[in-house]
Specification:
Helix content is 22%, strand content 34%. It has 2 helices and 13 strands, in the order αβββββββββββββα. A hairpin with a 7-residue loop joins strand 1 and strand 2 (50-58). The chain is elongated and about 90 Å long. The two termini are 21 Å apart.
């Protein structure tokens, strides 16, 4: 195969990739993107979570996606997620099993890669709902490129304050999710332009060599 044919082949292939990327570009926001949520348990880390409850959702900035999954309301907006205990009953997790909580997944590859997750409601506001769930630590949120894991194995909620625990206003986990940026269309255009220029140069050199 000549260099010219190789260049033409590369240009055609990149054109197809560009069209595919344009048609199926991933989002860097939950809004309009499908994702799934599993509530489950594991004694061997996040790689083998046994699901107890499951829900699928499509992100919306104007509506709560999941009203009740294992007693939790799950909502997304933009690149944020919130998990709020519905306060229908008290609960107290004692640290066993090693994982009990949520796996939030980009099962349809509609999101760009997850590059970071942070807990944002760590500052306590007295007498106001929305404070970080009691017993829960920010380090109990982990992630990989397609999943977020929220481990509640030491979390608790009590309606009535007690001597050493219990704060009804600590009912929520708020997360900020970093999603990889979407490549700009100009990136694909520059790639195609460069390959087109290379093809033109090779064609001209071949024409001059044949003269």
């Amino acid at each position: 195969m000549t260099i010219l044919k190789k260049c033409l082949g590369l240009t055609a292939a990149c054109s197809l990739l560009t069209l595919g990327a344009t048609a199926h570009a991933a989002n860097n926001t939950f809004d309009g993107s499908m994702f799934s949520v599993d509530y489950g348990v594991s004694n061997s880390g996040t790689s083998s979570i046994f699901p107890l409850s499951h829900a699928d959702a499509t992100g919306s900035a104007s509506a709560v996606e999941i009203a009740n999954l294992a007693g939790w309301q799950i909502d997304s907006a933009g690149s944020t997620l919130s998990l709020t205990w519905n306060k229908a009953e008290q609960f107290m997790n004692s640290g066993s099993p090693s994982f009990i909580g949520f796996k939030i997944s980009d099962t349809g590859n509609q999101l760009t890669d997850i590059t970071g997750v942070s807990v944002t409601n760590t500052t306590y506001v007295p007498n106001t709902y929305g404070n970080l769930v009691e017993g829960f630590q920010p380090s109990q949120v982990t992630f990989d490129g397609n999943n977020i894991y929220v481990n509640l194995n030491t979390a608790m909620w009590h309606e009535v304050p007690m001597a050493s625990m219990g704060d009804p206003y600590r009912d929520k986990i708020s997360l900020s999710v970093n999603l990889a940026p979407i490549p700009e269309p100009e990136t694909y255009a520059m790639l195609l332009a460069g390959l087109g220029l290379m093809t033109t140069i090779v064609r001209r050199r071949r024409t001059n060599a044949d003269k």
